[in-house]
Amino acid sequence: MGEVVWVIGRHTSQRGAQELLTQPDVYGALNANYDLVTSFITNMTFRGRVEQTLSEASTEGKSVVGIRSMDDDEVNIHPAEYVQQVVSFTAPWIELDSDDPLVAHVSKQVLRHEVAYASFCGVNNIVIAGPRRRANIAQYAHAVASVLTTSPYIQFHIDLSLVEDESANADTGNLSHIYDSYAMWDLWNTVRSIPPKLPNMDIQTRWFTEPIRILNIQASIYVPNAKGFPVLSKSHQNLINRYMKQRPAPFILLGDTPPLPSTPTARKDPHDSLNWLHYLQHMSKNQKPLSAVEKFGAGYQDYLQAPLQPLTDNLESTTYEVFERDPVKYEQYEKATRLALEERDPDSTTIVAVVGAGRGPLVFRALQAAESARRNIQLFAVEKNPNAYVTLLRHNRETWGGRVTVIKSDMRSWKPSFKVDILISELLGSFGDNELSPECLDGVQGVLNPAGGISIPTSYSAHYSPLMAPKIHADISGRLSADPNGPETPYVVYLHQVELLAENQYIHNAWEFTHPQPVNAFAPSSIAGLQASGLTEGYNEHNIRFSKCTFKIPRRGVVHGLGGYFESVLYRDVELSTRPDTIDAKSKDMISWFPIFFPLKNPIYVPDLSELDISMWRLTDDKKVWYEWIVEAYTVLDDDQRFRLGVSDLHSSKKVACLM
């Protein structure tokens, strides 16, 4: 999938006086290459009647008054085919969160009448004016919730500015109110309007995590370039380009541009009323090309996938094929293998084994590494999947010229009569060890030459950080009836609309595994016992891990789960990484692994300048391996004492990795 096509609509914020939306209005905008137009559902005539009724009721001291539905001369839209291209706005003058119960009661009736009529007309998108009073947000939300089931075909949107107006307090003389850039996010839901002065990157990132469906861009934020044409600043371009990477991409409403021309004008006329539209279309056509990771991950953004269990499941050929598309990973493996071979005696033959060979990509790379290093090797490919074994035999016959000895066996059961000098594997999972690389390599370590045998990889480590991920949390919550264990299931996810909440986006190094392990690391059984026929009680205790880290949280937010990553040293200075802060330096454009997400069943709200204690365990009972995690939130008092704000459930992954 390539770059997304931007959907841009023409928005006139003042359409609400007596302007009836007609077919020529809509088709005129469409002919001018807009995709949508907007219209308020009702007009000033309806407002006048409602306000008169409200005034009379107030004078008479009534606490309740009925508002009848609209007349023909009180609406701006009518049922028609072109309504499909219309985004309708509810009356901006109603106050669902009014302190006056009568005003709130009347406003709620107006909202219901407007939504019902818009649904009758066939409108698909309705924008509701956002709340005005922070203190009454629950009242506002209750009123909006009452119309959400009016029609299953309508998408509702809440109209909010990105941040509150800094100048409002000065204009009104309200000095008691402290400006807060996160106030509008506190009111929640979806940002719809981009202000002329953009807020800092932190709040832009926060809004990116939310399900934005409409960007309302006012013509007033454009600035003239040297030739007089309206353009957007670089910061506005960056923000729009970033938000348009959401999936699904939001609509764009271009507001308060000059009236459409009655006759076509020259395309290069600075006074053309379509210049604002043309500029956005230019941006759409000139989007930055997708990176290798973005191309590979297209369609998988924030999509939940269960981790693979290649030890217990035989993978399909198509699964192998997906991983084999990653040139970066295999180039790094080839480089590491070449370095290891170059350190060997050029006059001797090095025994190399690829364990868990799959369809053979590492076998190809090992042969190429031997050629480039000018070393003689004896190569073995060990694979337990009987179907992949067939592919290996075919490759050896048709491509490798019989230079490889193919073995059908679980690597843990392979007992050759010789020792291996270089043992190569690709058993890493999204959290490093979650596909049981430690247990598999423990089981095959006995074949490695104790005098200088090398494992590729030589080590790997697991890393995690708290995330705000409302889209992923909503997806998991929506599956509860079908999958009640979802909140305790680690998922492989291409993390996209998420925010790392920790100070400086800190990611914690939880634990590490190294190979080959010292023989005395295996407790209580010896390496010989580990290679013996059965699993002995306690044999895997050395692979238990525990990590606890305190994360500083500078800005308030909601913790929906933990993002998990890994780093690996293949050999010497050849490394792999999925951490967002080190992947470009260590393995840029690597696509084989998405991060892993450890969800919280009940998300935790954290205030400004708080702290999170996150504890995580890797546990085993010798038959399976699983993870447990818990999150504790604290606020730091003036005397540096900590007060606990909340604690998550102790989560224990139900979908475990089996050793048998």
TrEMBL record:
<dbReference type="InterPro" id="IPR007857">
    <property type="entry name" value="Arg_MeTrfase_PRMT5"/>
</dbReference>
<protein>
    <recommendedName>
        <fullName>Protein arginine N-methyltransferase</fullName>
    </recommendedName>
</protein>
<dbReference type="GO" id="GO:0016274">
    <property type="term" value="F:protein-arginine N-methyltransferase activity"/>
</dbReference>
<keyword id="KW-0808">Transferase</keyword>
<dbReference type="GO" id="GO:0005634">
    <property type="term" value="C:nucleus"/>
</dbReference>
<feature type="binding site">
    <location>
        <begin position="329"/>
        <end position="330"/>
    </location>
    <ligand>
        <name>S-adenosyl-L-methionine</name>
    </ligand>
</feature>
<feature type="binding site">
    <location>
        <position position="383"/>
    </location>
    <ligand>
        <name>S-adenosyl-L-methionine</name>
    </ligand>
</feature>
<dbReference type="Pfam" id="PF17285">
    <property type="entry name" value="PRMT5_TIM"/>
</dbReference>
<feature type="binding site">
    <location>
        <position position="320"/>
    </location>
    <ligand>
        <name>S-adenosyl-L-methionine</name>
    </ligand>
</feature>
<dbReference type="InterPro" id="IPR025799">
    <property type="entry name" value="Arg_MeTrfase"/>
</dbReference>
<dbReference type="Pfam" id="PF17286">
    <property type="entry name" value="PRMT5_C"/>
</dbReference>
<dbReference type="InterPro" id="IPR035075">
    <property type="entry name" value="PRMT5"/>
</dbReference>
<dbReference type="GO" id="GO:0032259">
    <property type="term" value="P:methylation"/>
</dbReference>
<feature type="domain" description="PRMT5 oligomerisation">
    <location>
        <begin position="459"/>
        <end position="660"/>
    </location>
</feature>
<comment type="similarity">
    <text>Belongs to the class I-like SAM-binding methyltransferase superfamily.</text>
</comment>
<feature type="domain" description="PRMT5 arginine-N-methyltransferase">
    <location>
        <begin position="293"/>
        <end position="456"/>
    </location>
</feature>
<dbReference type="GO" id="GO:0005829">
    <property type="term" value="C:cytosol"/>
</dbReference>
<feature type="binding site">
    <location>
        <begin position="410"/>
        <end position="411"/>
    </location>
    <ligand>
        <name>S-adenosyl-L-methionine</name>
    </ligand>
</feature>
<feature type="active site" description="Proton donor/acceptor">
    <location>
        <position position="435"/>
    </location>
</feature>
<dbReference type="InterPro" id="IPR035248">
    <property type="entry name" value="PRMT5_C"/>
</dbReference>
<feature type="domain" description="PRMT5 TIM barrel">
    <location>
        <begin position="33"/>
        <end position="285"/>
    </location>
</feature>
<dbReference type="InterPro" id="IPR029063">
    <property type="entry name" value="SAM-dependent_MTases_sf"/>
</dbReference>
<feature type="site" description="Critical for specifying symmetric addition of methyl groups">
    <location>
        <position position="323"/>
    </location>
</feature>
<dbReference type="GO" id="GO:0006355">
    <property type="term" value="P:regulation of DNA-templated transcription"/>
</dbReference>
<dbReference type="Pfam" id="PF05185">
    <property type="entry name" value="PRMT5"/>
</dbReference>
<feature type="active site" description="Proton donor/acceptor">
    <location>
        <position position="426"/>
    </location>
</feature>
<dbReference type="InterPro" id="IPR035247">
    <property type="entry name" value="PRMT5_TIM"/>
</dbReference>
<keyword id="KW-0949">S-adenosyl-L-methionine</keyword>
<keyword id="KW-0489">Methyltransferase</keyword>
